[in-house]
Design goal:
The chain is an alpha+beta fold. Among the domains are: 62 residues, no CATH class; 42 residues, no CATH class. It is built from 3 helices and 8 strands; from the N terminus they run αββββααββββ. A 4-stranded antiparallel sheet has the order 1-2-3-4, covered by helices on one side. The chain has a 4-stranded antiparallel sheet with strand order 5-6-7-8, with no helix packed on it. The chain is globular and about 55 Å long.
């Protein structure tokens, strides 16, 4: 056996014996634009971090989830079926919107769609208990709002 062959065999044995490192997080979502970014990360130690950056302004929020909630989200995002879904079906915000539709933001604030411009791909949202309105791309709604309740016809 040559020195090179023995060295390679030693390297293969050493590499195969090394344990795989445990991932430090189980889910991460990133949205980036020219204005900045938002990142949600659920770490394996149950810490949820929401980091936003707009220009020089950075905001970091942390929350510790209970063990059962962490297990639910880590198991959910680890499922093969989730990653095989089309992007716009992962959030549940896939239906048609009409003026007057109420959407509940993840922080609990409720907004009404007052203008729907499908050609430009935007909606105007007016706060039900908030004194303002703003425009958002339809494709971005799933990142900020819960899916609207299903209606029966």
């Amino acid at each position: 056996m040559t020195f090179l062959t023995a060295s390679m065999l030693s390297l293969v044995v050493t590499l195969s014996a090394a344990p795989m490192p445990t991932p430090t997080f189980c889910a991460e979502w990133v949205k980036q634009s020219s204005e900045g970014y938002e990142r949600l990360t659920l770490f394996s130690d149950r810490t949820l971090v929401w980091k936003t950056r707009r220009g020089e302004v950075e905001d970091v929020r942390r929350k510790t989830l209970d063990a059962e909630e962490r297990k639910f989200y880590c198991d959910y995002f680890a499922r093969v079926e989730f990653w095989e879904l089309p992007d716009d079906m992962r959030s549940g915000l896939t239906g048609q919107f009409v003026s007057g539709t109420l959407l509940k933001r993840f922080d609990g604030a409720v907004f009404r769609i007052t203008l729907l411009d499908e050609a430009r791909g935007i909606v105007e949202l007016q706060g039900v208990s908030e004194p303002f309105s703003y425009f958002r791309k339809i494709e971005e709604l799933r990142f900020f709002f819960e899916p609207p309740p299903e209606t029966t016809r």
